[in-house]
Please model this.
Amino acid sequence: MIITIDGPAAAGKGTLAGKLAEKYKLAYFDTGMVYRAVGLEMVLDNKNINDESLAEEYASKLTFPKMMKLSKNPDFRSNVGGQAASVVSAHPKVRATLLKMQQDFAKNPVFADGNSARGAIYDGRDTGTVVCPNADIKFFITASPEVRAMRRFREFEAKGMQTTFEAVLEDMRIRDERDSKRATAPMKPADDAIIFDTSDLNIDEVFQKACKIIDSK
Model:
C-alpha cells in the first residue's frame, strides 16, 4: 500500500506520517529531506541557491547516505534549512533530477535498516499529484498560517533556537506562496485527496480519522 500525505509546513504531515507508518508497519519517506539536503549543502558550501543549474548539479550527486549525514546538521530542520529547501525545490531541473529517486522508493520500499516493507507513506508537497499519482490513499493536511507558525515557533523554542513568532509567520507565508505558485509541481491537493484542516484538531483526532479511512481500504 502507498499512502501520500501532502500539505504546507507545520500542518502536521510528519507527525501523522510517522504514527501511521508505525501502526501499519510501512516505510516512511519524507520527500522534503531531499530538498533540504540539496539546499543545506549549497548553503554550507556558500553557493547561490537561486542558481538552478548549480542546484541541479548538487541534486544529481545526492545519495541517501549523504542526505542522512546532512540531516544531523542543526540547520537541517531550522529556518535556514527550510528556506533553502523551498528555494531549490522551486527549480524545475532540481525537481526532475530528484523525482526518480522518490518514485523508485515506491517500487521497492525499505525501512531505515534496509529491510523490505510492504508499502510506504510519503510526506511532502506533491507526493499525491506528481511523485505517486496512483497512490492507494492520498491525504492533504493543512491549517491556518497563524496556527502553523505557532507550532513551528514552539518547536524552535523547545530546541533553544532564537527567533520570534512574527519572523516564523513571515517565513511561513513566503514559503507557502513559493510552494503553491512554482511553475513545476505546485503544492495543491490531488483531485482525489482527502483534506484535513488541523487548525482545531489535535494529532490524535487527525490520526483516528486517517486510520478509519485506511482501515476501510
User: Anything to note?
Assistant: The radius of gyration is 16 Å. The first helix runs from residue 13 to 24. The CA atoms of residues 33 and 67 lie 7 Å apart.
